[in-house]
Specification:
Chain A: Belongs to the prokaryotic/mitochondrial release factor family. The structure holds 2 protein chains of 2 kinds. By secondary structure, chain A is mainly α. Chain A has 3 domains: 40 residues, no CATH class; 62 residues, Double Stranded RNA Binding Domain (2-Layer Sandwich), CATH 3.30.160.20; 63 residues, no CATH class. In chain A, strands 1-2-3 form a 3-stranded antiparallel β-sheet, with helices on one face. In chain A, strand 2 and strand 3 form a beta hairpin. In chain A, helix 1 packs across helix 2. In chain B, strand 1 and strand 2 form a beta hairpin. In chain B, the strands form 2 sheets. A 7-stranded mixed β-sheet of chain B has the order 5-4-3-6-7-9-8, sandwiched between helices. Chain B is of the alpha/beta class. In chain B, helix 2 packs across helix 3, helix 2 runs parallel beside helix 4 and helix 13 crosses helix 14. Chain B folds into 2 domains: 65 residues, no CATH class; 264 residues, Rossmann fold (3-Layer(aba) Sandwich), CATH 3.40.50.150. At the A-B interface, strand 1 and helix 4 of A face helix 3 and helix 6 of B.
Chain lengths: 215, 363
């Protein structure tokens, strides 16, 4: 899939390559996250990759389920089958005898596909039953939760920063802070949290100032 | 057909205003919900691919649902039907592949592999032998030959699969399906040389009309009754067919669903009533007479036939036994699936519905 967002940069790279790459290298050294990519960036044309370089931790292997424990059945239509009717439902139901888990899948029109999906769902469910927090599903859910939390934190941080900048520009900053304080009043916990956030904010402002100088 | 309770229609309408339309054909909320999902996916996909479409996907979805409420088959609206891992294109005028046929095909592939394993244990290495030969009569969309190729190609170095149908529309669709699945990567590139589709009339005698009779197409595979080296040049390993098998009365009396009766080709469902067909017994069984005779001529090692119900399947078993008694050689004929486990695992109705007949030539 061609990434269209990259296209204008490519064009500019063709037009003014030297200036462009040096600029990029500078910005890259400023941003600690991209520093590891600096050498790659110099050679490749796909520049602004946001993918994290550290690979995720390996998940525990999928649970292998013995076929002998499974009973797979397809939903039988009522009435005659074959040419006389035209069934569109091809639901697949798998039950796992030892644990008593039953999974029914009718996500797709294909029997084979439904069976595959049901099998993997069943494996996940049985594993969750057996291992609890140590199962693949639980680990994945935990990772997703963490990612979401950090993303939320980042957006919050970003908008705080933006608000702060606006305040610097037209002097509204004080008013906004004043507005914020009464909301936070009364609850000690919230105030404490706010202090922490402010700390983080100042550090970031400094960083952005530095990078601003660089560019 | 029992009427749908008003409460169910109300409930469906509360969920989605298009559901009651689909309920007319689907009869249960569950399957209506599924069909709506598939139709919606298709409508959105259509509107994306036709970038300057005049109307949005919602309009398209509504017209799709209206078509469906009149009984127009879902597969004709969506344009395809999954068959095993393949995607079979469907077009009005050609019978839609059924899940039961899928089960027979899987079973046939299993039996062929078993047979090959058994024979290679005893004698010659399989490499230098002639290709495994499969003939599918009344092939329609070509679903059986294509799925058999997908299932057998990893196990046999040489394969030759022939699909025969009378309808030129079906043959062009079968060819298209071959190319479509090659493109999808579901078939290996050998498939285009291993699979051939021919136009032929299974019931014809060859003399009277422009369509080739089955005899002239299969002539190279016939064996003289005296030849002892049965597996040198001719012969056939698997003869499989899902011929028209619905009787005139069952087509009209409500046993055949409205959607099938109104929109699928009658030619693929009800065998033609031949004037001279009196000696063959029931008119809906004429294809089986012809195919079983062919199976003997071709010395088919395995014959798999789809039948309408268990009564018809038993008739076909009896028929094959009387035909076989006149021939040399031993045969076993059975109805499949017959045990409860097979029925359940392949989605067959316990008492009603389609059954297959498997005839094996015993060595």
């Amino acid at each position: 899939m061609p990434n269209f967002a990259i296209l204008p940069y490519r064009l500019s790279a063709n037009l003014n390559l030297d200036n462009f790459t040096s600029n990029v290298l500078q910005t890259a050294t400023m941003l600690p996250r991209l520093r590891g990519l600096a050498s790659q960036i110099a050679t490749q044309t796909r520049l602004f990759s946001q993918t994290p370089t550290t690979p995720a931790k390996n998940l525990p292997p999928r649970l292998k389920i013995n076929d002998a424990d499974l009973t797979i059945s397809y939903l039988k239509g009522t009435g005659p089958g074959g040419q006389k009717i035209n069934k569109t439902n091809s639901a697949c139901q798998i039950s796992h005898k030892p644990s008593g888990v039953v999974i029914k899948c009718q996500a797709t029109r294909s029997r084979a596909q439904n069976e595959k999906i049901a099998r993997s769902l069943l494996a996940d469910r049985v594993e969750a039953l057996l291992k609890g927090d140590q199962s693949r599903v639980a680990i994945k859910a935990e990772a997703a939760r963490k990612k979401k939390a950090s993303k939320l934190k980042k957006t919050r941080r970003k908008y705080r920063e933006l608000e702060g900048k606006e305040g610097d520009a037209d002097g509204n900053g004080k008013v906004m802070v004043e507005e914020e304080i009464p909301e936070g009043e009364g609850e000690v916990g919230v105030q404490g949290k706010e202090e922490k956030e402010v700390e983080v904010e100042t550090r970031i402002v400094e960083e952005s100032k530095r990078s601003g100088k660089g560019v | 057909m029992p009427r749908i309770p008003f409460s169910m229609i109300l409930k469906a309408h509360q969920e989605n205003h298009l559901l009651p339309l689909l309920l007319k054909e689907c009869r249960t909320i569950d399957s209506a919900r599924n069909e709506l999902r598939w139709l919606r996916e298709q409508a959105v996909r259509d509107s994306k691919s036709l970038s300057r479409s005049r109307s949005g996907w919602r309009t398209r979805l509504r017209s799709m649902c209206q078509l469906r409420s009149r009984g127009y088959p879902l597969q004709y609206i969506l344009g395809d039907q999954p068959f095993g891992d393949l995607e079979i294109l469907c077009k009005k005028g050609v019978l839609i592949p059924r899940p039961e046929t899928e089960s027979y095909t899987y079973q046939a592939a299993k039996l062929v592999r078993q047979m090959a394993l058994d024979s290679s244990d005893k004698s010659r290495p399989p490499s230098n032998a002639r290709p495994l030969r499969v003939i599918d009569l009344c092939t329609g969309t070509g679903c059986i030959p294509l799925l058999l190729h997908a299932l057998l190609a990893p196990h046999f170095q040489k394969l030759s699969i022939t699909g025969i149908d009378i309808s030129p529309l079906a043959l062009s669709l079968a060819q298209k399906n071959l190319e479509h699945n090659l493109q999808l990567g579901q078939l290996t590139s050998r498939a285009s040389t291993d699979i051939h589709f021919h136009r032929g009339n299974v019931l014809g005698n060859g003399s009277d009309d422009s369509i080739l009779s089955i005899d002239s197409i299969l002539q190279p595979y016939y064996l003289e009754s005296g030849s002892s080296l049965a597996d040198q040049t001719g012969g056939c390993d698997l003869l499989i067919s899902n011929p028209p098998y619905i009787s005139q009365s069952e087509f009209g009396n409500g046993t055949t669903a409205r959607s099938v009766r109104l929109f699928e080709p009658k030619m693929a469902l009800v065998p033609p009533s031949l004037v001279t067909g009196d000696e063959h017994g029931r008119p809906e069984d004429i294809f089986y007479h012809r195919i079983l005779a062919l199976a003997l001529k071709l010395r088919a090692k395995i014959t798999v036939l789809e039948c309408g119900d268990i009564v018809q399947a038993k008739r076909v078993v009896a028929l094959s036994e009387t035909l076989a008694s006149m021939e040399s050689g031993q045969f076993s004929a059975e109805v499949w699936p017959s045990c409860e486990r097979d029925l359940l695992e392949n989605g067959f109705h316990a008492t009603d519905g389609s059954r297959g007949v498997i005839i094996r030539r015993l060595p």
